[in-house]
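The protein record quoted in full:

***
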Amino acid sequence: MTIQQDPPLSWEDLAEFPPGPHLAFALTGVDLVGLPDVELVAVMVAARRQTSWTQSLELAAVAELSRRRHDQERGLGARGMGNLQINDIVVDEVALTLTLTGTAAAGWVCRAAGRGPARDRGGAGGRADRSAPRAGDRRRPTRGEAGSGHQGRGRPVR
């Protein structure tokens, strides 16, 4: 694989290329169809490295926006708004700007503030939170959990 640059980069060079604008430029000239498997995998790894770098920049921008909105001297906090109101405004602003759902935007804002879900941080003491429901969880809800109003002894709902 040769990337149209002076001098041309090989896939070995791409594997060591740091993320940033130069890597983004290098990836724009890649013809995926003509690549052998080894080079295609190198492009995948480089693209992931670039994506991670870009997402960290995006997260830092969300954190700075939140900090500015919460600023007690010049932000919305100076107008007497409480933290919950300001958080709602920041989440709405992030959702509209990045075209995310409200839930996804709330996740970005929480992660930017260092308050991501416990599962994402590994839980207390570095252990995962095993009590939280997960996608694909096959445990059936009990009568009390199913919202039927019945507070039985945990019998499965039929």
User: Anything to note?
Assistant: Confidence is low (pLDDT under 50) at residues 118-130, 148-152. The radius of gyration is 23 Å.
